What we know:
The complex is a heterodimer of chains A (130) and B (106).
Chain A: H1 2-11, H2 14-18, H3 26-56, H4 62-96, H5 105-129
Chain B: H1 14-40, H2 47-73, H3 84-105
Helix pairs in contact in B: 1-2, 1-3, 2-3
Amino acid sequence: MSDFVQSLRLWFAPRRIRDEGETPDYRFSLANERTFLAWIRTALALIGGGFAVDQFLPDLRWAVRVGLSLALLAAGVLCALRAVNHWIRCERAMRRGEDLPVSRFPAVLSLTVAVVAVAMVVLVVFGRAG
Amino acid sequence: MAASGAGARDPGLQPERTRLAWRRTTLSCTVVAVLGIKLALLDGATAAGMTGLALSALLWIGFLAVAHRRIRSLDTPRPRVLSHRGALIAAGCTVALAVCGAALIW
């Protein structure tokens, strides 16, 4: 948890990162930026999915529909926050010449998406039948 | 580096690729904003719906502004690093769109 608070502090103190280490090759920074944007797009896709569940599955019960779309929206929010965090941590690691940070987030996210997808298939199929 | 003369172009086209990544992301944001606006109009012209519509449009414009600034600043052979403010605004608009939609869905 203190790790998280520390990186949160880095979000709003760009100068502290700029003071560390050496400026990496601009191409590495651009690659890091594209990774950040790819995560933002993933977040946007999850959010769009949440909106779509609410609009295009009106046959589902209210609680199920709202629960599914809120779960997707929450995943999108987490993904966007993590995009910033990961971008900053990678930028700092590159300046310091350290290894890039690794994390469990991609695995957790893909499992969550898989679970939501299976739940949706089951709900749509059995919702139609029932 | 042999090809580091003034105006030399990166053979890997990194600035161009990054510019296109911003374009793709703006496009995704547009799709989400349109879905959000559709969501806001679902129950007709209610006060909550209109607020949601205005907020979605504003957030979309905010994202567009950040992307546009960044795309312009990438138009050099050796662009600077993305600013913290830019990254925070882009992610903030994304989060705010989700929160706005969640309020409408609820």
